[in-house]
């Protein structure tokens, strides 16, 4: 139904079934024109490029993102090339001269998990990770940890990258103790799983980017900063001085909007691509709820067809899925394999059959996108059947 949006990528891979779109999503055709527009604007504005970007392009992108999340403060969104910049900037807002306590899960993406693992080697960092499994009791266990003492930072994903399970971030954020920094990682849910952020926007931080389901490619990540935030992260860049560059001296000032979390020079072509894709989705009538329904329907078609071939590993028994029939799930399905070696072997076999997937340890992931139709799903199951 929506293949027409992705003709260039599809034509480049005519025989491949790409089911790794949670990892490397195909880009809609409009992103190419946007990429070229960035070059043309660079030639047109030259030294005035930054003024154009920050007065026109950044507000446009902020407004589009705010519409998706139902945020009433689009100016509280700041951009960076990757989420790790924001992770470390958030951490650098804490007082490192004292003991720092961090509450998170055992299923956070590497941009956060690697960094806190390294910091936990320092004597003044205490990191508690709540296991996401068994998921039926996850929220109760996380709430119990929140109630134990005080936390400097609480960080968890909306959709867990290694399972596709969806966290009830409203429930946990609203029960979090006041005075603690609460951060939601929306990287694997933004433009995939609907989220009304309006009730959280006054106290919760939100990180996401365009590489996954926003489909604008790498390089355009963003952080939503609650309006009353007054932080002075020691990991800071010259973009935070944009409002008074001509008066910069030895004093380090910080703006009162989201730019207090700004970094430095970046390639804004990614922002052009993100804007183009979000505008195209609007013109096609594709809001997050509709996109999510299309993907859910495709997932159910895939699972129903998969049951008929009775694959020894890729079956419902090994599927990560919530016990609740009404629970939402991310846009990829995750299967638990017997071992890391078995998982990697299956990935290789699928790749030989021209089926692109990916894995994390013993978990094999199938991602679903708007460029899949019914025939793609049936062909996928057929190719899996040849491996059994």
TrEMBL record:
InterPro entries: Aminotrans_V_dom (IPR000192), PyrdxlP-dep_Trfase (IPR015424), PyrdxlP-dep_Trfase_major (IPR015421), PyrdxlP-dep_Trfase_small (IPR015422). Residues 55-316 form the Aminotransferase class V domain. Keywords: Lyase, Pyridoxal phosphate. SUPFAM superfamilies: PLP-dependent transferases. One of its GO terms (molecular function) is lyase activity. This is Selenocysteine lyase. The lineage of its organism: Bacteria, Pseudomonadati, Bdellovibrionota, Bdellovibrionia, Bdellovibrionales.
């Amino acid at each position: 139904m929506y293949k027409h949006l992705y003709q260039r990528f599809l034509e480049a891979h005519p025989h491949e079934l790409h089911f790794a779109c949670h990892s490397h999503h195909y880009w809609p055709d409009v992103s190419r024109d946007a990429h070229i527009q960035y070059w043309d604007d660079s030639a047109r504005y030259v030294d005035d490029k930054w003024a154009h970007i920050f007065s026109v392009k950044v507000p446009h992108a902020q407004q589009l993102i705010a519409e998706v999340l139902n945020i009433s403060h689009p100016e509280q969104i700041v951009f960076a090339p990757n989420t790790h910049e924001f992770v470390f900037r958030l951490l650098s807002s804490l007082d490192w001269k004292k003991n720092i306590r961090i509450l998170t899960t055992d299923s956070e993406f590497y941009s956060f998990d690697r960094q806190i693992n390294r910091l936990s080697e320092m004597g003044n960092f205490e990191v508690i990770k709540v296991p996401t499994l068994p998921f039926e009791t996850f929220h109760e266990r996380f709430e119990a940890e929140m109630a134990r003492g005080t936390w400097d930072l609480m960080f968890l994903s909306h959709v867990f990258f290694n399972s596709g399970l969806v966290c009830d971030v409203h429930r946990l954020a609203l029960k979090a103790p006041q005075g603690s920094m609460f951060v939601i990682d929306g990287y694997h849910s933004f433009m995939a799983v609907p989220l009304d952020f309006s009730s959280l926007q006054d106290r919760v931080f939100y990180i996401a980017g365009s590489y996954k389901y926003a489909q604008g490619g790498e390089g355009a990540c963003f952080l939503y900063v609650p309006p009353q935030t007054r932080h002075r992260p020691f990991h800071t860049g010259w973009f935070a001085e944009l409002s008074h560059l001509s008066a910069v001296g030895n004093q380090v000032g910080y703006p009162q909007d989201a730019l207090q979390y700004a970094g430095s020079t970046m390639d804004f072509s990614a922002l052009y691509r993100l804007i183009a894709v979000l505008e195209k989705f609007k013109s096609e009538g594709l809001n997050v709820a509709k996109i999510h329904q299309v993907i859910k329907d495709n997932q159910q078609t895939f699972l129903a067809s998969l049951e008929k071939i009775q694959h020894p590993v890729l079956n419902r028994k090994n599927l990560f899925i919530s016990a609740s029939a009404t629970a939402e799930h991310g846009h990829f399905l995750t299967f638990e394999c017997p071992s890391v070696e078995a998982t990697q072997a299956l990935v290789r076999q699928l790749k030989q059959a021209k089926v692109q997937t990916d894995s994390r340890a013993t978990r094999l992931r199938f991602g679903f996108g708007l460029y899949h139709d019914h025939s793609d799903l049936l062909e996928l199951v057929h190719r899996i059947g040849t491996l059994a």
